[in-house]
Amino acid sequence: MTFAGWLTIVLFAVLLTAFAMPVGSYMARVYTGERVFLSPIFAGPERLLLRLLRVDSERGQDWKAYAKSLLIFSLAGWLLLYIILRTQNAFYVPSALNPLGYHSAPWNVTFNTTSSFLTNTNWQYYSGETTMSYLSQMIGLTVQNWLSAGVGIVVAVALVRGIVSRSGKSIGNFWQDLVRTILYVLAPLSVLIAIVLVSQGVIQNFTTYLTAHTITGLTQSIAMGPVASQEAIKMLGTNGGGFFNVNSAHPFENPNGFTNFFEMLAVLIIPAALVFMYGRMTGNRRQGYAIYGAMMLMFLGAVVVAYVAEAHGSPAQHAAGLNTHVIAGSTGGNMEGKEQRFGIAGSALFDVVTTVTSCGAVNSAIESFTGIGGAVPFANLSASEVIFGGVGTGLYSMLLYVLLAVFIGGLMVGRTPEWLGKKLEAREIKLAGLGILITPLAALFCTALATASHAGRASISELGKGPQGFSETFYAYLSQANNNGSAFAGYTGFIQPNAGNVGSHGVTFADLLGGFDMIFARYAPILFALAVAGALAGKRITPAGLGTMRTDNPTFVVLLIGVIILVGALTFFPALLLGPIVQGLTGHLY
Amino acid sequence: MRRDIVTSLIGIIVFTVLLGLVYPLVITGVSQVAFPGNANGQKIYVDGKLVGSKIIGQSFKTPVLEKNGKPKEEEELVTEADPRYFQSRPSATEGGAYNGAASTFSNRGPNDKATEEADAENIKEYLELNKPYDAGLTVAKIPVDAINTSASNLDPEISQANAWIQAHRIAAVRKLSLSVVDGLIAKYTSGRGLGFSGEEGVNVLELNLALNSLSGGTK
Questions:
Q1: pLDDT value, residue B215
Q2: What is the C-alpha separation between A589 and A103, in angstroms, rounded?
Q3: What is the Rg, in whole angstroms, of the alpha carbon atoms belonging to chain B?
Q4: ipTM of this model?
């Protein structure tokens, strides 16, 4: 461990908070329809787009209408993406946009990929540079990077509206929220991020792969493509699907220490800002600060554990006789599967940033993390993406936990639980409970099915012996259920002997189970969150009394963290014991 | 219902055009004008020939030749480290090390025997290559980056400690003074981002090209 490493972590937390607060206020104004400094630029296009979509934005939607628009739009997106990916080498695709003439991936892999990008998961059984044409990456995957992020954000906004609504049924208009999210929030940030990334060395071109003749007489082929435009929205929208196979570890996606830091900020800026937005929209910023505090405490805890564990080194390294301490000119640690330019701290922090959110981008090989270091992403996922979480998904999942915490607190003091002046009754608690339990249910059910069946075990990598094989499987379905997308990358659902998909085939069991895992665990919680919004929207607000439990003080922060850890631990601990914990506690090699 | 379907269909087409065509093309246009070198991959040419990208790691091994003078192949090209050049980190990409068209994780587990065996193999190779020029070199002195594969398996950098050990060999083989080689290492070491983010590293391709363009010594 080094001073620079710890400094990186501290400065990251400070800068994130400093940037997220103004963005949060800005977003609150955007979604309450106030004028913002970008209104002169975007008000015209917003009206034009809504007219083009034939949307009467004045008309609010109740939760059912909102959900219906969301689901139908998602279905249309799913179909279009599937068609684009399956017709990658059709006659009408210009060869400049598919320079290597790649065929389409098989149907089962495409089913998985399509479901993955629609649900903001970006789980990838394929490897970008050997599977996808430039056109597929642009009009297929990049577009869903935007839209899946937008859909997540609007659900959170709708839920907050339901919570603060003083009367009536409307929780906003899905189409207007989506258009505003894309124009006012995602577009300016994404363009800015893309250009900063290119200025640092992320590539953006349409030339064919390069062939270099090295100075020692070898030839090297180098993949190219329009990377920066996709990289920017990939991070900002907590998508995480890499242009290249190794994602943000690839020098063309993440060229140096600065971009590594910058990309991490890009991942967390919106999830963090949404919490401040929530505070502002409730009219009491301390509500936002309390949730932010709970998230930040859990986040920092995870970072410290990951950094210490990775700096310690792995049993395999020690068995081979390597010295993993800091020496002059090298910071030691578990450098298996890590890039020199990021080092241990930059890799551990990135790993936590992308697994607490639903981003799932990686700049180091999670499969090669030490047992305890690898248990950190497991734990983050087990908390169901509420430590900041994905764009939108994080806030709405967290608010369901807040509801649960208020209910438990209410039981403790023996009063009808109240939240922001609204009495919580059986219906809301049931909906929130179900919304919280869907993700763990999907993850554990799929893991059990995949470990218990021959077809499921076929996906485990050759190197995945003993607990590592279980970890791979468990992580795969946990990550897909949480719409995260990071992986113990040895687990496979796609056999591709040659670049370009000729002769390749998918592992149907893993592809389909994973695909349904992602879809179910994405849309079911969205429906529950919107239903909670609908249930709360109609409730009258009663003034807080002396006995009302406050949700904006440190006591509540502790209660909230307790509830999250308890639910996560009780649900996942038995399964975690079989994988990462066994590896972390023994030095045994398998 | 019908209204939603019509809006969804128009919406997905409009958004695909805006976000899938207009947005990437605008970014490409701006990048190609403002940062053409970066946007095209920081290509390095020597005598008009493309030798690689500054930020994509390369193998500095040479093909082993059969008795008939042809390169030896055992499924992949067989290569051995060229002692005249700084060697990059071990790489396990498919189709030979440092395949820039197929980045891959090695996925070696922390508690795997296979990981230990791969490490042991790399340690042996590293000692064979460098120990003759640096008598004091032991396993415990080898920096981890020289043995462990990177995440992308295309890491363009090595640690300074790794470079300093290899400098003994380079100086001896090229008949240069150690201080000249160490000076070059310092010159091609990139600092941390903003002064704190990430780690310092030495760009292997740039360093090797600089060695080749040095006057004096043997090439």
A1: 65
A2: 41
A3: 23
A4: 0.96
